[in-house]
Design goal:
CMP/dCMP-type deaminase domain-containing protein, binds zinc ion, Cytidine_deaminase-like, CMP_dCMP_dom, alpha+beta
Length: 168
């Protein structure tokens, strides 16, 4: 493939890229701080300038103050860049411990919509089997966790209100 350009974004990841993205989300799940729900979530984003960032859900005793893994990953990514620069985001992965795989909550979908294009895919990983995952590496969990649910940003948030709607 001719070198990637900042003006075009390929939303179709190759198998190596998907593996890296998924492994990052699964690994991030181990950093979840969720003493109240015990519901671990990891998320990762891949940009077209090659950055792979991840985050985990962070809960606090005052429940509404906590943050989801997707926004935990996305906000620092955005804040790495001087305005108006912002890479295009090629894909997102989310990892939880349930089956079927959990999807992003509505609040995260709206924040992702701000920075992710409608054709971008979200790969949602769960844990298909009731086997013991304890002690498995993220790479090994990816091998046994089952196929991800995959949806585009546009499918996850149809008729969305986004940045373009405020540009007149
Ligand atoms: Zn969320």
């Amino acid at each position: 493939m001719a070198g990637s350009s900042s003006t075009s974004t390929n939303f179709d990841l190759n198998s190596t890229e998907i593996k890296s993205l998924a492994t990052a989300a699964i690994a991030a799940k181990t950093h979840a701080y969720c003493p109240y729900s015990n519901f671990r979530v990891g998320a990762s984003f891949l940009t077209n300038d090659g950055k792979l960032v991840s985050g985990a859900n962070v809960e606090v005793a005052s429940t509404p103050v906590g943050i989801c893994a997707e926004r935990c990953a996305l906000a620092p990514l955005v804040a790495q860049y001087e305005r108006p620069h912002m890479p295009r985001i090629r894909a997102c992965a989310v990892s939880t411990d349930i089956w079927p795989p959990a999807s992003c909550c509505g609040m995260c979908r709206q924040m992702m919509r701000e920075f992710c294009e409608l054709d971008m895919k979200v790969y949602m990983y769960g844990r298909q089997e009731s086997q013991n995952y304890k002690g498995l590496s993220a790479e090994r969990e990816l091998e046994v966790c089952g196929e991800p649910a995959v949806m585009t940003m546009g499918e996850m948030l149809p008729m969305s209100f986004g940045p373009n709607d405020l540009k007149h």
